[in-house]
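Give me the 3D structure for Aspartate aminotransferase family protein.
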Amino acid sequence: MHPTLAGDLSRLPELLQRARDFAAREVSGLGDRPVSHRDPAPVPAGLPGEGAGAEGALARFAEAWAPGFSGSAGPRYLGFVTGGATPASVTGDWLTAAYDQNVSGSAGSWAAALERETVAWLRELFGLGDAHSGAFVTGATVSTTVGLAVAREWLGERLGVDVSREGAAALGPVEVLSGSPHSSVSKALSVLGVGRDRLRRVPLLPGGREAVDVDALESALAALDGRPAIVVANAGTVDTVDFDDLRAVAALKERYDFWLHVDAAFGGFAALSPAHAHLVDGLDAADSVCVDLHKWLNVPYDAAVQFTRRRDLQVRVFHNASPYLGAPTGEPDFLHLTPENSRRLRALPAWFSLVAYGRAGHREIVERNVELAVRLGEGIAALDGLRLLAPVRLNVVCFTLADDPTAARVAALADAVAASGEAFLTPTVYGGVPALRAAFSNWRTTRADGERVLRALASAPGTHG
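Predicted structure for Aspartate aminotransferase family protein (465 residues):
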């Protein structure tokens, strides 16, 4: 064994304690450190010849790279939809690395059984039934890709084509209908060989809504003259967290032949709050569902879950035919259900967080975030220099400058807030207007944090009317 490696092995408990101490110092300061860093990154160094050992690597990281890492795990990082990592989920994540299980199959380890237990808990959390099976994947994009891959196989079943063998071209033109599809849908269609141009946008409800007009969707389905299609519905859009009427969309399946995929990447967590659970009424009728866990479940990157009613088709798409891997019979191993063969035990951080805080703890996170989003929306509406572009329906505040909201001026506002170190917001365009989004999904965020964000906006250049 290389002497540096042997030395690290002999001092492993001490090294882990040093890493623990360093991480504890970093995490304890999240609430006060700058939310984002804008200085240039260090010039990349050459590959080391002789290693410095784990302690030397930690010292180099602490000096050269750690100062430029963002506070994305902290309470005022409101960009994208980014959760943090609860204490229990960090514990589970560290143990995931320590055990280093490859959850491709179930032979020789209970890790796959733990993932199945976690999936069952999540299925219950989101109000899905036993008909939905699930598996962990990296994020919402892969979850959507898996769901649409199963949908593609379903289309083949309806049309007498074995897509997994003959390829997507054997299907002919595929119709994918959606009102406000997330950009990952187009990416998934590209990866799957269906094509980005096969995505057809269906008219939305009037009044600035992002929810699909169900009557318009029915008209689009009727125009297909019985040809099966894919419908992508939304349980929480990116800009305004609008929800399609999932129950009404699902009811169309009584008259039209389509696969229903629901993008519930973060909006699915509305199911945890009695005040908002009606927004996901009908989610259980979906053929496939995408939920991103490193958003509102607040587990470390990367983690999402994918649910489907047709595990048989999922196995047909993703099974890995090799004698040494075993056949996908009975309860199929996870390598036959997702694009990956090698799979990290992403379920363990989620398992820890669900055991530690239960339904009640995660409900409190959701409801507190929604309350904070509403309060920030009210504060923005009261500022002369800013205006809301949509009502605050759940956890995202979409707003812009009251006067002359050009892309350049809105970007300057975002830069000024980021430069203050107080908050980080991400841009969008809503209704043709350049805008900013403040997305609340972090377990740490408090009312005091929301007030700091509002003060940073109020003091930024250009927001004074």
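The longest strand covers residues 433-439. Let me know if you want a second pass.
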